[in-house]
Amino acid sequence: MASEQLTQFMSIVSGGAILLIAQYYLTSYSREKGKNLATKEDIEAITDKIESVKGEHAKQFENYKLTLWQEQQAHLWAREESKLKIETFKKSVTDVAKVINLVKRYQMLISERELALAAAGITKDEENSAAHKMYWDKHQEYMEQAHSAYADFRVITAEMSGLFALFSIYFNFELTNSLTTIVRLAYNEVEMKMSRAKFSELLKNEYTKSSSLETAREAVGVYYDGICAQSSLPTESQRFFDLLKMYVNSESGGAPAREETRNS
Question: Is the pTM of this model over 0.85?
Answer without folding.
Answer: no
